[in-house]
């Protein structure tokens, strides 16, 4: 998780993920896209997403299993760690003189709009995580990759290939299988009885909204911010989470849940210290995941960031079986394999696009060299 402190001072170039119209591959003051340093940075971001999402999901379930019951408190923890980003901002490099500076009047509505959407999306995830075993919740949440394929096509002009379509279909069937296995999951003592359909529907809805959020972030950096430094990544994450935290705090106060917090702390398994540690750990983990995901969005694309999130798919159910006693049924196992298949389908498309982009870049470079040579040969002032 300490990888979140790794700075990204360079400004990265735009690119076409589908390889059809790749743009400049070099980054200012850094290594070219696809170089060793670039891949190491991407790997660090992926590690942040995997660790943050896995730990945050498990701690969120632990909160409910240990006696926590406030949906708004669980929602607040998903964005309340944002003040940590303000500390990181103090250590980021000063902006370059030519760095674009979008007007505050233009960015404020974006921050408020995204923050409100994030706040209510977090609330849906909080309900869903209480109503489903964490293993099932994780597998259903994998459908966000399919939703993100659609939003990326509509908002970010992502090319919808056969492999991506295959990924969407497979992930959809993966979620449908879990719907068939509802009865076995409802026997889990830690899950409220009769809430499985609501948890299933809320997880699907939250996954769709999360996919929309990722695509909107990508569009914001592409069309409004027009720069890809760590300072802007942290700034966007900070202000949208401040708004989301405000939404959660208002809900906590308006619902009256805040009155039950002292009793909840006193009754929490292993005491008040474990209660506080669980909430703080959840808040920090979500911020690590969010920053890593946003860095992947500005480095590669929202779809790639979402694909990375699905890599935690096999991790959460395994830990859930070991830590919470979730049942690993045959339907879950098949669903997990189908979800991994869906991920690999997209990953292979990413590999093909990368090869195509690299080949196009070499072809353009060779053509430019031939043009330069022809011009040099036709220059009357050139030496014989």
TrEMBL record:
A Pfam cross-reference name: PUNUT
InterPro entries: PUP_plant
Localisation: Membrane
This protein's UniProt keywords: Membrane, Transmembrane, Transmembrane helix, Transport
Region (Disordered): 1-31
Membrane topology per record: Multi-pass membrane protein
Molecular-function annotations in GO: purine nucleobase transmembrane transporter activity; purine nucleoside transmembrane transporter activity
Domain of life assignment: Eukaryota
Membrane-traversing stretches: 38-60, 72-91, 103-125, 162-184, 196-217, 238-255, 275-296, 303-324, 330-348
Cellular compartments per GO CC: membrane
Keyword Magnesium: no
Matching PANTHER family: OS09G0467300 PROTEIN-RELATED, PURINE PERMEASE-RELATED
Entry's family note: Belongs to the purine permeases (TC 2.A.7.14) family.
Protein name per the record: Probable purine permease
Species this protein is from: Oryza sativa subsp. indica
Taxonomic lineage of the native organism: Eukaryota, Viridiplantae, Streptophyta, Embryophyta, Tracheophyta
